[in-house]
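Handout, page 2. Input:
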Amino acid sequence: MIFGSEPPLYLKPVGRRGLRRHEADVLQHYPGYVHPVVQFPESEGYISEHHRLHPFLTPAEELRHEREVQVERRQGVVAARRKLCCEREANLRQRREEEFQREQRHKEQMAGLSIRNEPGDGRDTVTQHCRTVDALRHWEYRSAAEKHKYFLRQRRLFEKNHSHGYNIITGGDLPSIVVPPMPPRAPAAETAQIQDEA
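Output:
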């Protein structure tokens, strides 16, 4: 016999060798072999010995038993669906609660900022008056800083356009552009103290 052409071990006839015939048949099959006629408890054709050999088993009792099994199965399906719906509802409530808490934390962080189309610098939308002392000081600082930047840019452009340093037509001196100083920003502690006093 050529090497590799022999049949596998589980196909070779073992022989009884002093064993009973059914034991010898089991030894001839591969591990995990299932006989096609044998029914297992989870299969459709399975019936227990106690149920099969019951002396009082009648067709009516068999039908009643089938109805009871169907009712139990249906109740199990309904209970599983009810449990799934309850879990889904609980998860939905938890997600909504977490979303509400996130919105509350976001609103707390947005305190003092622009909300509902209101300006974020603390001024009234209609009258443009500052509501707090802190907002007034902030607005004054921004206005002074914008003036400083504006006049500084004007002076740079004027000096660039008149690089000679005098009027080339009349020979006189050029008008000087006074740049207001950059205002110092008020410290946070001072601003908080002024706001508390107000």
